[in-house]
Amino acid sequence: MKHLKGFPYKKALVVGLAKSGFAAADLLHTSGIDVKVNDLNADSTGEQAVKLAAAGIPLITGSHPFELLEDREVVIKNPGIPYENEMVMEALRRNIPVITEVELVTYLHDGPIIGITGSNGKTTTTTLVHRMLEEDRRNVRVAGNIGEVACEVARRTGPEDTMVIELSSFQLLGIDKLRLHTAVWLNIFDSHLDYHKTRDNYIEAKSRIMKNQLEEDSFIFNNDDSIVSTFREKSVAAAVPFTLEENGRGASADENHVYFDGEIVAERKKIVLVGEHNLQNCLAAVAACKSAGVTNEAIQAVLYSFQGVEHRLQYVEEKKKRYFYNDSKATNIRATRYALEAFENPVILLAGGLDRGNSFDGLAPYLKNVKHLVVFGETSAKLAEVAGQLDIPCTPVDSMEEAVARAYRNSKENDVILLSPACASWDQYRTFEERGNKFVEAVGNL
Q1: In what order do the strands lie in the sheet with 322-326?
Q2: Which of 61, 285, 322, 370 has its CA 20 to 30 A from that of 224?
Q3: Is 362 marked as binding a ligand?
């Protein structure tokens, strides 16, 4: 496994453990950097803590003692820790650089890097790009929010490998030298404002995906997003748009085809992913891969077979001409809206979950194809109220198995049975993945 090359600091403090903190600490230590770890809530007897102790890496838990900063030259912050954290604020007050783990890739990987960000669609687009590159027989490694920690993946890459990294705004705030040979910015919606405080701060964080790009690099941007598209003028890299409008530049689509720079790349009717938002993700992936020289045949092979990322409008199966989709990742109204807009067939919608105090009136305009609503969890009554206002039949249930059974009982041929909860899962399930798995299991048991 590779070690850091040219890293300009000799003494580091990692703030926040979890996967990225542990990976960073291990990498720094094996690269000969003097490293300490500070985590307020870490379990000092947990697996990661035991491994740190075995390696001789100090772990300080329960508080943030400022004396840890006295001889430190850099702080590597867990992306989820806000900049208002007292240790982070004190480091900045002392003019100690604060970076996130993904910055370490700069000192590990010599090959091309494709970075992908956006408020929605990051994982789907990252997966599409990854698979298209693989189909084109490229050596490719995927990392970031989608799975493995970026610096951990970069330790195993060679110069012939392409890294594809899904990047959150939290990670992008902590980059300094990291250069993305291809930067993809999908969209921008109000999100994570509890962390960023203002919309402008959030937009600025996302725009850092262009930081350090050179003229020979590519900036892939959503020309249909009024905010994202303004940043084309600020990019020194070659700006490559993608758009749902018919357009001769970059990636575009009409009713029949997907194009790149006016050339037909794929037949639209053969694309498996449903929904306009997913078509945008496909176009972003086409723009990124065509900019990297991927063949049309490789792109087609993926677009014509890829059924979606697990729990993100994922096609599950067909039973007696009823079509089941798992969209458990839809934890807010906007995400459920996108899912509903993807279908022209009648829909039986399974929804509900954690009550965060919001109403569901904003969902009402998108329920026009919903023939029956099956509701569960803390928000059952609120969703049932919206259904009543629209005269949509509604059935409250206590479990996912019952929800699927009731939905199937009320369905007819060509109906879509869609789990798209519009709520977080934590009232009944530990994660949205667990909720989605229960849905898939219940469909299999019908």
Answers
A1: 314-319, 322-326, 416-419, 347-351, 370-375, 394-396
A2: 370
A3: no
